[in-house]
């Protein structure tokens, strides 16, 4: 079209053109009559594609509360066992004197909904273990239900060009003269990074 305008084969042309220094010498531009934008169109990825779904079921404060509950329960269990040993002189299987490591293994087994070779003898210790098992059982049920829902949920984190740049999605553009010129001469950092890191081929095209 530019060639036809230069050779007087056309007096007026209508298309999207970049405003460049060499064209200003040859043609006159009219003001933009309509808004034109270039967009990336993509299917919203799964939430597991953009986030670690194994940490999402609970917030950070809930995770802290769970860990604190397990630690406090372990400390209380150790104290109760020490008192049992001092007051009643009981034996826990082959263990004569329960120590910190035995209590850690006991709480680890309780947290995994498993048993332990240390069986508390007193009512307070049994109540503590029962309470821990019930609370952790409900937490497991809630965690599992949230995981199933999150795996099937789409992600809405990609909202801007920067989000697209930092995502694992591959990008591409229609191979037109307009797009080639636009991306190869773009100076805005994020758009230039998208072209260099996600669209540019090894041969530089």
From TrEMBL:
Keywords: Cell membrane, Glycoprotein, Membrane, Receptor, Transmembrane, Transmembrane helix. One of its GO terms (biological process) is detection of stimulus involved in sensory perception. Residues 60-167 form the Ionotropic glutamate receptor C-terminal domain. One of its GO terms (molecular function) is ligand-gated monoatomic ion channel activity. It is found in: Cell membrane. The chain crosses the membrane at residues 54-81, 128-151. InterPro entries: Insect_Ionotropic_Sensory_Rcpt (IPR052192), Iontro_rcpt_C (IPR001320). It is a multi-pass membrane protein. Pfam families: Lig_chan. GO terms for cellular component: plasma membrane. Belongs to the glutamate-gated ion channel (TC 1.A.10.1) family. This is Ionotropic glutamate receptor C-terminal domain-containing protein.
